[in-house]
Amino acid sequence: MKELRDPAALRGLLEDIRARAGRLRRTPRLMEVCGTHTMALFRSGLTPLLAEAGVEMVSGPGCPVCITPNAVHEAAIAAVTGAEGLTLAAFGDMTRVPTRRGSLQTAVPARGSRLRIVYSPEEALDEARREPGREVVFFGAGFETTIPAVAYTVKRAAAEGLRNFSVLPALWLVPPALKAVLDAREVAVDGFIYPGHVSAVIGAGPYEFAARDYGVPGAIAGFEPGDILLAVRSVLGQMAAGKPEVALEYGRAVAREGNAAARALMDEVLEPYDAVWRGLGKIPRSGLRFRPEYAGFDAGRRYAAAGGAEAAADMKGCRCGDVLRGAIRPESCRLFGKACRPDAPAGPCMVSYEGACLIHFKYGPAGRGRT
Amino acid sequence: MCLAVPAKIVRLEAGGQGAASYMGSEVRANFSLVPQARPGDWVIIHAGFAISVVDAKEARATLRLFKEMAAAERR
Amino acid sequence: MTKVSLELGSGGRLMREFLAGKIVPAFRDPLLGELSDAAHLPGGIAFTTDSYVVDPLVFPGGDIGALAVNGTVNDLVVAGAEPRFLSLAFILEEGLETATLDRVIGSVRNAARRAGVRVVTGDTKVVRRGQGDKIYINTAGVGRTVARPRLDRVRKGDKLILTGTLGDHSLAVMLARGEFGLRSSVRSDCAPLLFLLPLWRAGARWMRDVTRGGLATVLSELAERLPCPVLIEEDKVPLSRPVRAASDLLGIDPLYMACEGKAVIVAPAAKAAALLARVRRHPLGRRACRCCCACRMLSRRCGDRSRARAGGLGRFGSNPGGCNAASAGRCRPRRRCWP
């Protein structure tokens, strides 16, 4: 895929983008909602180059670990510190999210219990199969890219009659969040860069409301610099023509109809509900929970934040919620780079692989007087 | 969480299990979500699961597009 | 913190706070307070110690025995000392297979021979089954001081040399544990860094071996003691193919992955090219590169030490503008990128 990083090709695309942006009435502001896009933009240096070319990029709620409220993170901590002989399995970055009860990583497990970093929910399922006497809880946070995998493991656990496996769910849907961002009218968004791998599962259909009801153009993008620039160019073209749609600029990995098998699996095991997002509040039908027939696998029914959900507030001074809405850039947070750093974070945005604050800290322009 | 990579299916086993090759390393993955995939196909792998099959024709078209853009820019 | 957490042993901030907050004040010893890789004692002797805990005991490229020798040898080398003698202390768990123990002892012997050190004293203890993790090893090392690292001499514009690829040891151990369903040809880079000793005479200012916590941890400790941030060009950091693959697949950051045979060297600008060439001549240094800049003053407030120190942790950012896209936008010739 190195052709998609060829400087000459990228230069050409940037020039095209500059020309198109120049013909618009004002500087277009495009929102991406995927931490991996944020990272790709920064690592390749595209953000300042796009700014130079007359396009402003802003990050939306693209980090599932970050939008998961502290109440759920604290529930995971309660599980591993309160129950004996329990394995709490989670993706690596989730273990460093700071809460008022510390993080999963610094929590001292109860006797015989342990935290285990996994890369796939299947690893947790395997442990449950191998050790029937042990309770295994998988802390699953993710968007539609990850949700089918979680649904699959629960379905398998049910089919195999496993009684020692459960999932602490933090499952979020992207399109309702986009709608919430548009409805809030807090951040002016001229176009969306849609997340390529979420789209591989859900297809293009769920975004069509943005074009049809809000007149906001968008393009589904892959993660190479070339993929992103193609998508930006497409969105500018839609703006110029006054013809908003959901363009597919990642055809090699995404079919317009998405992955029906994956969606069927999600639908079988999970149902939508009105979930509360960090920073965005309650959004209708924006989260997924286990259907009644799978309720036995919902670890959220057994483990909750030790002081109660209301007490599990964000850390003092943390503005992660504002960053997630796109209302502020990480650099505008008073704590950024000082009291909040990757090794001493004040919130999840500074620890998740897809957290905007971490990405800005690692890759943002240096020497802003903020070390 | 969009962290996912394209990998080439090396082996499909029973129960949706199998292995794919990425940059010389072999990774075990679950292929239940892409029942139409065959060994030799490229898939997108995320969190140990293949979530879609790469469309080879589209991939070639994209690479061709970029080669042309690079050539045009160099002229 | 009322109880010790696993995190304390990981070599990161929690450990540094522990050392600074509990250990150093408890002893108030100027040599200890330096928290150097090895202490330089009066009489030209350097002294260091390290303990080794690894699961599994044996992995591609090495075992706990080799680690126990090379880790301590390397601490002496990067502190400016020629390793001469080691102590070897075992804490064994009841029930350990003697075949395993024999293998480990053999590895210690081979590694010691390769590193030119003599194992001259030691100890053996056995604990009940379940009260130890098969084998714990402690080695103390004694060497002859050949140079004194001078962090205070590090200047703006000094270059950082990394002696080779990152993360191989960490990945080899992870895969040997059967984690992540990943198989690759990766091998631990466990090796003695003796070939770096001549660099002290040739002008190296400071060195540290890259172990637990990875390059990022070394650089952030360095940045904490320098008045300005450390930036690296991430794309230049050498990675073996298996580590690159694992990083993409698993989301692990190679900058934080442990090595056991790599070091970071601070070189004055004028000597950097020559030092790099010397490192590259050795088989273990073939992939060495200059990928970092120490002490790059980037902000107009650079004179304000307190502000820089408040940040502390080194900032790791790729070249503003990145490698490829920057040259796309600005046609900047490669040699003007970060060296």
The CATH architecture term of the largest domain in chain A is 3-Layer(aba) Sandwich
* Subunit organisation of the chains: heterotrimer
Helical proportion of chain A?
25-40%
What's the architecture of the largest domain in chain C in CATH terms?
Answer: Alpha-Beta Complex
Question: How many strands in all of chain A?
Answer: 11
Which CATH class of the largest domain in chain A? Alpha Beta
- Tell me the CATH topology of the largest domain in chain C: Phosphoribosyl-aminoimidazole Synthetase, Chain A, domain 2
Indicate how many domains the architecture of chain A comprises. 2
Uncertain spans of chain A: 366-371
Integer average pLDDT of chain C: 82
Distance between the termini of chain A: 34 Å
Overall pLDDT of chain A, averaged? 92
**Over the alpha carbons, how many angstroms does the gyration radius of chain A reach?**
21 Å
Number of helices of chain A: 14
Amount of beta strand of chain C: 15-25%
State the helix count of chain C.
Answer: 11
Strand order within the widest beta sheet of chain A: 4-3-5-6-11-10
Please tell me how large the radius of gyration of chain C is.
20 Å
Choose one word for the global shape of chain C.
globular
Largest sheet of chain C: 5 strands, mixed
- Terminus-to-terminus distance of chain C: 42 Å
